[in-house]
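> example.struct
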């Protein structure tokens, strides 16, 4: 009604003018007057807007109670986990339609990749707000964030974690062991099984030995044996044990008076044998050797070195020589008579070298003259005629010229001399050809005794 009155007043105004024609603006107005009449009173000009999984917030010119009147503007918003596709803001137009459309689509994140040696579980798959927890296989540990969340932007929070092998291998060495050295030795043969190493990630691994190999001879004392192993991630494990070798020993065995000992191995270890030897002019009485036993005691009783007793009243040459067998060497000196100049010269040199002969275990037998006044003697002890004749026949010793015969400890003819021998020459021959290594060493220790 108000609009009609306004048009009538406007027509009357133009007719009351100076009679000029109506301007073009009037024609435009007529066209607007022919347009559809807007009815702001109708509350349902556009259909009521709706948004599945979302929310529509509208503002109407008529006030908050009107949601679809002409000119109403609505803001479109999606629920959490959904993305808006279309117009975020629409307006109710005069053609009774909204200026655009929109709908909400459920949000998803991309599929997470599996991590080596691990896995993950998610609360809602790959949807928004889904939380995926990562776990590792036995022997591995998570490096990084153990979980990721699908965010509203469609991307995952954080970075992809990794499973790192931080669990060292497992290895167990054999127990430590004690071995007694073998008889006559200072070592013991020790064996054991090589330990096997395992790793939760890599399975069986190569084991490295640090120390002496099993199945070899170990010396006296403690030896530390180590094994170590590395897995593919260079995690390390090691173990060790001790091999102890014990040498059972007897108390030190004292040498006999006027004699000495020669012992095998270390001298007083289990299984060692010590032999008794006597100095020149002495002979052994008792056992020839003693052995260190497992109970740390010496077998048998100690031997003694006593002055050598020579029985000169024997009836045969063999009985005489048996007394010297493997004990003494013999130097048999023969001359036609006591006044022979070669004999006298040799006799003087023999008397001066008596100490050196004893050190070399040499006894002198003298054969002088011819029957029936022939004599034989060992120092002051006289020999029977049968023994003298036996010596001459066995060793082919002449009565008609000076000669000297050297026998070894087994009674074998080693050298003959037809001229007197100086003690240095005689001793040089004995030292070079009749003494063994032990006797030479012993001689060097006692050489000064004769000075």
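> example.seq
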């Amino acid at each position: 009604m108000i609009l009609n009155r306004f048009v009538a007043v406007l027509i009357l105004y133009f007719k009351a003018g100076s009679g000029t024609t109506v301007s073009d603006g009037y024609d435009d107005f007529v066209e607007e007057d022919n347009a559809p009449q807007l009815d702001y009173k109708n509350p349902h000009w556009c259909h009521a807007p709706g948004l599945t999984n979302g929310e529509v917030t509208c503002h109407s010119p008529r006030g908050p109670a009107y949601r679809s009147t002409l000119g109403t503007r609505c803001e479109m918003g999606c629920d959490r986990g959904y993305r808006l596709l279309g117009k975020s803001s629409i307006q109710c137009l005069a053609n009774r339609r909204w200026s655009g459309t929109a709908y909400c689509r459920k949000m998803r994140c991309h599929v997470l990749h599996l991590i080596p040696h691990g896995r993950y579980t998610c609360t809602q798959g790959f949807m928004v707000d889904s939380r995926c927890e990562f776990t590792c296989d036995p022997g591995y540990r998570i490096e990084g964030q153990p979980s990721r969340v699908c965010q509203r932007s469609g991307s995952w929070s954080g970075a992809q974690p990794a499973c790192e092998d931080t669990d060292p291998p497992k290895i167990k060495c054999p127990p430590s062991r004690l071995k007694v050295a073998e008889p006559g030795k200072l070592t013991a043969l020790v064996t054991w099984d090589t330990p096997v190493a395992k790793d939760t990630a890599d399975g069986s691994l190569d084991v490295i030995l640090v120390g002496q190999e099993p199945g070899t001879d170990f010396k006296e004392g403690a030896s530390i044996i180590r094994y170590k192993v590395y897995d593919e991630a260079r995690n390390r494990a090691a173990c060790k044990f001790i091999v102890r070798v014990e040498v059972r020993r007897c108390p030190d065995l004292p040498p006999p008076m006027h004699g000495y000992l020669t012992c095998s191995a270390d001298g007083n270890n289990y299984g060692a044998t010590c032999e008794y030897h006597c100095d020149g002019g002495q002979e052994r009485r008792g056992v020839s050797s003693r052995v260190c036993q497992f109970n740390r005691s010496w077998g048998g009783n100690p031997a003694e070195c006593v002055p050598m007793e020579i029985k000169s009243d024997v009836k045969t040459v063999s009985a005489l020589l048996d007394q010297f067998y493997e004990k003494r060497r013999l130097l048999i000196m023969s001359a036609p008579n006591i006044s022979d100049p070669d004999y006298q010269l040799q006799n003087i040199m023999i008397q001066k070298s008596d100490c050196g002969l004893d050190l070399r275990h040499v006894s002198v037998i003298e054969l002088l003259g011819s029957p029936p006044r022939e004599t034989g003697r060992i120092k002051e002890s006289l020999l029977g005629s049968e023994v003298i004749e036996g010596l001459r026949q066995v060793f082919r010793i002449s009565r008609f010229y000076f000669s000297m015969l050297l026998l070894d400890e087994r009674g074998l003819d080693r050298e003959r001399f037809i001229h007197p021998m100086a003690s240095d020459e005689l001793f040089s021959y004995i030292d070079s050809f009749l003494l063994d290594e032990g006797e030479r060493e012993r001689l060097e220790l006692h050489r000064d005794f004769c000075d």
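> remarks
The longest helix spans residues 2-15.
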